[in-house]
Amino acid sequence: MRNFLNCDFESLDEGSLSQPHLIRSPTTFNYSSCLKMPWIQNDTYQDEMIKSIPGCISDLKESCRPAKVTVLKVIEAQMSQAKSLMRSDPKVKVIHLIRDPRGVLSSRRYFRKFNDEDPESFSRDICNSVLEDIGISRSLSQTFPGRVLTVRYEDIAKEPIRVTKQLYRFVGLEMTPSLEKRIWEMTYAGLPDDCNICPVRSNSTETANGWRKGLSFRTVAKIQEECKTLFAVMGYRSFTTEDELKSLHIPTTFDEYDSRLRKADARD
Questions:
Q1: Do 107 and 124 form a contact (C-beta atoms < 8 A)?
Q2: What residues does the Sulfotransferase domain cover (predicted)?
């Protein structure tokens, strides 16, 4: 992470420099063009692309170095990793994104990383890990005031423009009208929603609630039992009947949650 934030791409491994999300970004267009990255790859092309990486790194640097803010989205990282970054660089800020574990496990089931027959062990591991991260977030917020912000995924889905404005203020930026329009198009414009890992959604709230249709009440009840401490901390609602679960007008979150966290929400 430190290498990415410092635009030190020469120190990165080939896997990181050929990661699809890196080379599909609009800000890395020149880099991906240099690699001649196709949408469909094969093993032969992958080898050729990796050989071309050293000659294309300068294009990455040209995009990275002039940027006012460098943003790094890290999936399944631990907050303990953020601690050393924040200590070594006073400019680093952390947005800690937390999602309802029922939605997380539903997504993992899509990728066959979650077994409906044994939801307890999966739920326990995930929720204990998130609780540990929350504890570290509280500690970091005290050690580095103003540099850690906690965000619930569901709040972004509910009010994407309003919460995004909070995120921009947190990092010292102002949201422009063109960006606001782009966010609306990505979350509420009725665009096709046929990709489980893509950022563009036909309706962000409906997408955030998708697990309520896909998971059985039996599975949801077991997740809730294993994650009740996390639910209390982060303000997630437990459903007691299948009718409640399937009634999408009943929200999955409460407005209030852990007061010890600096947080972004849909009400600010």
A1: no
A2: 83-188
Residue 140 to residues 76, 99, 149, 154, 158: CA-CA distances in angstroms? 18, 20, 10, 23, 27
The residue assigned the tokens 């170095």 is: 65
| Cα–Cα distance list, 41 to 20, 36, 103, 208 (Å) | 11, 11, 30, 31
Helix ranges restricted to H, 171-216? 177-187, 204-208, 211-214
Q: So what's the pLDDT on residue 37?
A: 58
Give per-residue burial for 198-224: e unless 16+ CB within 10 Å, then b.
eeebeebbeebbbbbeebebebbbbbb
Q: How far apart, in Å, are the Cα atoms of 221 and each of 76, 112, 214, 227, 238?
A: 24, 20, 14, 10, 8
User: For residues 268 and 166, what is the distance between their CA atoms, to the nearest angstrom?
Assistant: 8
As a whole number of angstroms, the distance between CA 40 and CA 23 comes to: 13
CB-based contact 4:12 (threshold 8 Å):
yes
C-alpha distance from residue 220 to each of 211, 216, 217, 234 (Å): 9, 6, 5, 17
Instruction: Tell me the mean pLDDT per 10 residues along the chain, length 268.
Output: 91 88 83 71 68 91 90 87 92 96 88 74 94 96 95 93 93 92 78 47 77 93 97 97 96 92 66
Cβ pair 131, 229 in contact under 8 A? yes
What is the per-residue pLDDT for 192? 47
Phi, psi (degrees; rounded to nearest 5) at 52: -85, -10
